[in-house]
Amino acid sequence: MQTSPPFRRDRARLPAAERRRQILEMTTKLIAERGFWGLSMQDVADGCGLTVPGMLHHVGSKDSLLVAVLEYRDEQDARSLAEKLGRPAHQLWADGRITLAEVCDAVVRRNAEQPEIVRLFAVLEAESLAPGHPAHTYFKTRQRRTLEEFAALADGVVDDPRELAAQVVAMMDGLQIQWLREPETVDLVKAWQAAARRLF
Q1: CA gap 192, 169 in Å, rounded
Q2: Does the residue 96 lie in any domain?
Q3: Range of the domain at 190
Q4: pLDDT confidence of 159, banded at 50, 70, 90?
Q5: Does the N-terminal or the C-terminal CB of the chain have fewer CB atoms within 10 Å?
Q6: For the segment 71-121, what is each residue's pLDDT rounded down to a tens digit?
Q7: b/e map of 29-55 (b: 16 or more CB within 10 Å)?
Q8: What is the CATH number of the domain that holds 66?
Q9: Span 123-155, pLDDT tens digits
């Protein structure tokens, strides 16, 4: 009778920043597949070739790991968005040279390239509606910041920039859910372009 070999831990020593990035990427993948409540610390550790205590040395608790994953993905997306718009990330919103329509188009194009990350955020955003969820405050703060940034881009262009910002976020989120559910029939970029013609 043949048995599978025992799981072997990765003994290679990685620099702390590289190990942390590896843990965040593995956690991102597992949450996208299972949601936060289905996330096993053992599975993350196994995927990185670590013990659970060894992994927690780099990230702290399960709750702090979740927030670290979300912040890491936000940083990655901000850099990508700045590149797509040809602007330094720290000046993206500052000088009025970028419109809300341009930002939204770049965001949608970026999201269309990474369905697993969009799924991760969609799952966690829904789960975090429960006040006791470890990402509840994160998503509440993130939504406020997004609305403020979008409203600032629309200021002086429409009578009620805050209302437009809320409608844009609702439309983007709704289209993304439809696309995630039926990617074979929904083209996210085309669906957004059609919506944008009505919104802007």
Answers
A1: 11
A2: yes
A3: 61-199
A4: very high
A5: N
A6: 988 888 888 888 888 877 666 665 567 889 999 999 999 999 989 889 888
A7: bbbbeeebeebebebbbbbbbbeeeeb
A8: 1.10.357
A9: 889 989 999 999 999 999 999 999 999 999 998
